[in-house]
């Protein structure tokens, strides 16, 4: 499998350099370029055609949220992962509404970051556990508003699939789920595929939201 082509976008040059060094040491990832603000990010993305953009949110000239929104329109095939310092509600939901496929904090481990980049390249949503909790909590607030009850699942989830779903909703990666449940990572991938299929969800975030609506979490 070829390395995932990544564009780093952050206004702190030292952080970009450190992150680039870290990722360059991993064969699964190829850093193809850097940008110091959202405007440069759009230019570099157009010229370099990365698979994934690691996007800071608070930057001069053009912030990461605005850049993400434009990038999703101009280059819809490019996946954006927000990589930032803050996980306040305003930033989280603004980034996701703009089209970011995931949201990670800068204290994320190197292994987790590489896994997230690979998942994003496959079109999978990736959320830090604290962020996943915010998304589910926000969706829970909708329970107070009148809405139709979702239809129950045609094929129910097995006990093991429910175990996987709960960890998935906490923002755990396949590797972390495998460790927690003492399963092979390939087995976890199969369970995740089954969970998404049974829930009619296109990604992990949507699966967590639908599971919450069905009182599965």
Structure overview:
With 217 residues, this protein is α/β, with parallel strands linked by helices. It folds into 2 domains: 4-127, Rossmann fold, CATH 3.40.50; 140-213, Winged helix-like DNA-binding domain superfamily/Winged helix DNA-binding domain (Arc Repressor Mutant, subunit A). It is 52% helix and 13% strand. It has 10 helices and 6 strands. Strands 2-1-3-4-5-6 form a 6-stranded parallel β-sheet, sandwiched between helices. Strand 4, helix 4 and strand 5 (102-105) form a beta-alpha-beta unit. Helix 7 (159-169) packs across helix 10, helix 8 (174-181) crosses helix 9 (185-199) and helix 9 crosses helix 10 (204-213). The longest helix has 15 residues, at 185-199. It is globular, with a radius of gyration of 18 Å. The protein starts with a strand and ends with a helix. Residues 5-121 form the Response regulatory domain. InterPro entries: CheY-like_superfamily (IPR011006), NreC/VraR/RcsB-like_REC (IPR058245), Sig_transdc_resp-reg_C-effctor (IPR016032), Sig_transdc_resp-reg_receiver (IPR001789), Tscrpt_reg_LuxR_C (IPR000792), WalR-like (IPR039420). GO terms for molecular function: DNA binding.
């Amino acid at each position: 499998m070829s390395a995932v082509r990544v564009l780093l976008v952050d206004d702190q040059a030292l952080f970009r350099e450190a992150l680039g060094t870290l990722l360059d040491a991993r064969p699964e990832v190829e850093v193809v370029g850097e940008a110091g603000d959202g405007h440069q990010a759009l230019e570099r993305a157009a010229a370099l055609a990365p698979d994934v953009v690691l996007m800071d949110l608070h930057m001069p000239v053009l912030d990461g949220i605005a850049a993400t929104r434009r990038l999703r329109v101009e280059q819809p095939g490019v996946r954006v992962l927000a990589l930032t310092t803050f996980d306040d509600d305003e930033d989280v939901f603004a980034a996701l509404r703009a089209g970011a496929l995931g949201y990670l904090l800068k204290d994320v481990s190197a292994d987790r970051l590489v896994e997230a980049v690979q998942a994003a390249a496959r079109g999978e949503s990736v959320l830090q556990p604290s962020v996943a909790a915010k998304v589910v909590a926000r969706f829970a607030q909708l329970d107070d508003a009148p809405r139709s009850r979702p239809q129950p699942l045609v094929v129910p989830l097995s006990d093991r699939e429910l175990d996987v779903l709960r960890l998935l909703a906490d923002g755990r990666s396949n590797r972390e789920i495998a460790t927690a449940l003492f399963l092979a990572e390939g087995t976890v991938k199969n369970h995740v595929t089954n969970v998404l299929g049974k829930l009619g969800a296109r990604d992990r975030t949507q699966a967590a939201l639908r599971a919450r609506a069905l009182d599965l979490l």
